[in-house]
Specification:
Radius of gyration: 22 Å
Distance between the termini: 57 Å
Number of helices: 3
Mean pLDDT: 88
Length: 381
Amino acid sequence: MAQPFGSLLALLLISYLAATMATAAYNVVDFGAKSDGRTDAAKAFLAAWAAACGSNQPATIIVPSGGFLVSQALFSGPCNNTGMRMFIKGTLMAPAGYSDSTQWITIKYVEGLSLYGGTLDGRGQAFWACKNSRRSCPYGATSKNLLLSGIKLVNSELFHMSIFASSGITLQGATITAPGDSPNTDGIHIQMSSFVTITGSTMRTGDDCISMGPGSTDVWIENIKCGPGHGISIGSLGGAAQEAGVQNITVRSVEFTGTQNGLRIKTWARPSNGFVKGVTFEHAVMKNVQNPIVVDQNYCPGIVNCPSRSSGIKISQVKFNDVQGTSATQVAVKLDCSPSNPCTGIELQDIKLTYQKERSLSYCKNAKGTASGVMIPSSCL
């Protein structure tokens, strides 16, 4: 039975001619790949990868126009050169249906790899239908360890991209798309990774546009358009008693349109040694966003089997600066912090969030900090 996979890479073609300028070039068609969208091209892709990776000089892999069915592929290093490039002009397609596999296309242990071009289609519709029917479903797929420019990712089963246990990752000019009602289709999830930069991208998904899990440090996110979706989130955190912290995060120049949340930190109400500190959210525009600014330390989606204890995640040094626009609910700012570990060092500066023709409100619980500049709604700190 066909086995689909959900996580995707897809990269904007910069120049097909540029690919031919590399010292060594490997076209997947020359290794037996067929662009008919039906014949599994995984072996051909892996053979082209092996040849390029084994080259002692800079090498380029070329994927021409057409649809290439790829059942599953692990592009693994280390390689003999650090000048690897892959130009994708066509579409890579996951098998239809869904399976138990945790990965579709994975790149790991490779240094100096750049990928450009085309589309990766995870064909996650069957998996979403399974999830929405509340049946027992497989986990879906993720991909990780990527250095990408100009990607286009569509219809992942779950996370479109997972950046895990990596450092020095740069993502520019991404377009990520899935229906607003597709479950758990985060655009990009970051975890146990540092020095990650995401800029100039558009994300329309059924979950967080970008989420940052435990161990996310030194992350820079800028010039993002998000919506529909659940916003940009730190968390969820506190799923384990022993958990790496999140720190040195900057999110700036983001436009949220019709999202469930805007700028969010979410933690479970249970003991944990994790923390969040050194976070700056600034220059954000909200357009009809349900929860523009929210810290939720009683996070429990679905309100089923919710923990009833106090969150151990310590939140400090978090700044919200120049956040403007419209809220879809009256409470535009919500800071619901842990009773045992109150939020400290929260800064609200130049906030202007309106709600229809009524006065917008702010709500604070166990939160300590300061407010300055224009404050609409009035600060509850």
